[in-house]
């Protein structure tokens, strides 16, 4: 049984049903998973840039930009001038942390609206924002695997997209950057389904709804987003 926020952050991964029952009455405990997730993102990129062969990384990134033919020569030159280790470190670190905050803010808005329409108006937007950080804890596991990959990369020649070790592209497809499915396959992470499962379990715990309804609410935004994205690729590639 969770007796503090740190223990709850671990047990949300191993016994989520019981843990969600506990944390729904603990108003400030969500700050711990928030800190764990965001700090781990910052730690990953700092560790990565401390170990990567940066001249190789810069050349690889410019080659990808050239292959995608989205920039002319002058734009590629400007991009090369901008791509210093410091600028890339801080843009990816801050961008990575802020993007997850933004995603969780959108998820909280979706849950706040959806649960109100379903007749369950017990929780505020702030409650659902806190809820989203509990469901984000699988990111910490993914980041630990990424840091292990950096450690095992003896020559430092590891592209940033290769850090995502649990994406469909890393696990199954291995398409290159010029493939129209590249970004899609690098975004669909198998651990995302872990988070969706946590959302469903949490909804069942907090709202007392049936498992099927909770799973539908949890999966719907992801299914719609990635379904539309896949259709766009199919019809524009």
Structural summary, described in words:
This protein is mainly alpha-helical and 237 residues long. It has one domain (5-236). Helix content is 75%, strand content 0%. It starts with a helix and ends with a helix. The mean pLDDT is 93. The longest helix has 33 residues, at 85-117. It has twelve helices and no strands. Helix 1 (5-14) packs antiparallel against helix 2, helix 2 crosses helix 11 (190-207) and helix 3 (31-51) runs parallel beside helix 8 (138-152).
Tell me roughly what share of residues is in helical segments.
Answer: over 70%
Shape assignment: globular
Name the helix and strand elements from N-terminus to C-terminus, one letter apiece: HHHHHHHHHHHH
Multimeric state of these chains? single chain
Low-confidence runs (pLDDT<50, min 5 residues)? none
Content of β-strand: under 5%
Give the domain tally. Answer: 1
Secondary structure class reads: mainly alpha
* Mean pLDDT score: 93
Largest sheet: none
Figure out the total of helices: 12
Question: What's the total number of strands?
Answer: 0
Rounded to the nearest angstrom, the distance between the terminal CA atoms is: 51 Å
Q: What value does the Rg take, in angstroms? A: 20 Å
Could you name the key traits of this structure?
single chain, 0% strand, 12 helices, mainly alpha, 237 residues, 75% helix
Give the arrangement of secondary structure elements.
Elements: H1 5-14, H2 16-23, H3 31-51, H4 54-68, H5 73-82, H6 85-117, H7 125-134, H8 138-152, H9 168-173, H10 182-187, H11 190-207, H12 211-236
Helix pairs in contact: 1-2, 2-11, 3-6, 3-8, 6-7, 11-12
